[in-house]
Each structure stands twice: as C-alpha cells, then as structure tokens.
Amino acid sequence: MKFKKSWILVLLLIGFFTMSLMVKGQNLYSHMVVCLEGQEYHLSYNNSHIHIDYEGRSYYFSTDKNKKIIDMAIGDIDSNGNDNLLILEGENLPYGQDFVIYDILTDSNGLELKEKYRNHMEVVRPWKIKACELDQDQELEIFIAVNKKTQYYEEIENRPFFFNFKNDMLVKKWTGSKVRSSFTDVYFADLNGNGRDEFIVVEESEEGGFVVAVYYWFGFGFILQGESENYDRIELVGTETIDKSTFLVVETWNHKKKTKRKLEPSKEQTKNGVYLLKEREE
C-alpha cells in the first residue's frame, strides 16, 4: 500500500481500538455512506481520522499531526462510478486552508487514499463543503461556504461559492456575495423529486431570529421558492421520506424551548409571495 503526503494508512480489524477512539469526547465521529464499484460502505470521521469499513475489514486513515479535517463531503465528481472524498483541511477550527480531493482506490490489498487535487483557499476562509446536483447535467456541483468581504459588501460574512470539477481543475459556477441575507448553515436535497437539489439555507430574518429558505437554480443564479416561519434559532438536521414525500427535519428554539420539526411545502404563501414551509402534522 502506498502512503500519500499527509495521509497515513493503517489497516485495523474491527475491534476495541476503533471503538475506543469513537467514545473520546474530542473524537466524536460523523457518519456517511461512500459508494465504491456500485456498493455502499460505512465511513466515519472526526477532526483527525477517517475510518472506512470495506469488505469485512476496517481501514483507518490519519491526517498529518498539524492538520485537521474542518469539513468533508462525498461525491463522484469525476463520474467514474466511485465516490471521492472532498475535504477542507486546516490547522485550526473553524476555517480551512486547503480544499483537497482524494480518490479512494481499491485493489487486492484493500483501500488507498490518493490525493487528486489541492487548492489553497486560506484567504477566503472556507468552513463548510457539500456535493450537490443543481441542474441535472450529470456533473456534480461542489459547494464551499466561505467567510469574507466582497467588492460591494465590506462586512465579513458567510458567502456561497459553487464550483464544478472539470479537466482536473476547479471551475467557478457561481460565487455569489449572498442569496438574500446572511446565512449560518446550508443543506441540499431534492424536495420535489425532479432530480435537482434545492439549496436550503438557514438565514437571518429581517424581524430578528432565523428562517429556513429554499432556493432553486435557474441557469445563472438562485430563485427563492419557499421559506419557514421565524424561529429564535434553527439547526438543519437532514431529510426524511414518508410515503414517497421528502421533508426537511430541523431543530428549532423558541423562547428557549427546543423542538424537532418536519417541514413541508404548503399552499399557504408568505408575505414574500412564496410557499410557506409548514410543520407537518403527524
């Protein structure tokens, strides 16, 4: 097996050592699914380690001691049937320094991570990364949230940057100053089943507090499609499918009370003339 730059490959059997890593407070793992040769496998990661279960074995990868995983996404960005790891690396949270793409290679010896592409992005302070499909063109988009000022907006805020990966290069698709207002979190999901992901954003509200806003891609930018009511605080959790309908799952805080809610489009309109994301009645 090869060792590539800052990554060290160690083969572990599933057992006590892996479990002990996961229970340490500083080593809480996020869990994802990676697709290799048409099969799905479990992947988990924290700030310094990646763990992949593959064909009955557990593979453990460590970053260089001076680097941390700020955020990670998974997607087949070169359309070869195998997912890639899209990683923001940096020395200190919450902002990254490098955007790195890794191939996950498989052979008779098992798994290997091989660096495919690296882009130094420290100047724009990237902090979140996602893979999405905005326009159903069979080319995944790469979303990177950055924290910077722009030519027309002097305040340092979170900005939405979208790219494609073509000919082994990162190519700008849309690097906007903002959609409507400042945002704190994003998510992508195909809510209406048309094969295209909506851009789902937790935005600051004009009235104070936050709303969930849903945008769709329209050739050269984003159009607001729906929004929720106002909450003191919102955290996006994900989506849930019930009877072939997809709902947003969020955690909200109002008057210091935390509530988990399922939001779905309704026929009601907001003052902005878009559909209201309304709480689903169980």
Summarize the structure.
The protein has 282 residues and is an all-beta fold. It is built from one helix and 21 strands.
Please characterize this protein's 3D structure.
The protein is an all-beta fold and 282 residues long. The protein has a domain of 104 residues. The chain contains one helix and 21 strands. The strands form four sheets. An eight-stranded mixed sheet has the order 14-15-16-17-21-20-19-18, with no helix packed on it. The relative contact order is 0.09. The N terminus is likely disordered.
Report, as a whole number of angstroms, the end-to-end distance: 52 Å
Counting DSSP E segments of at least 2 residues, the number of strands comes to: 21
Could you say which structural class the secondary elements and strand pairing correspond to? mainly beta
Please give the share of residues in helix. under 10%
User: Going across the major beta sheet, what is the strand order?
Assistant: 14-15-16-17-21-20-19-18
Cα gyration radius (Å)? 20 Å
General shape: globular
β-strand amount: over 45%
Major sheet size, sense and barrel closure? 8 strands, mixed
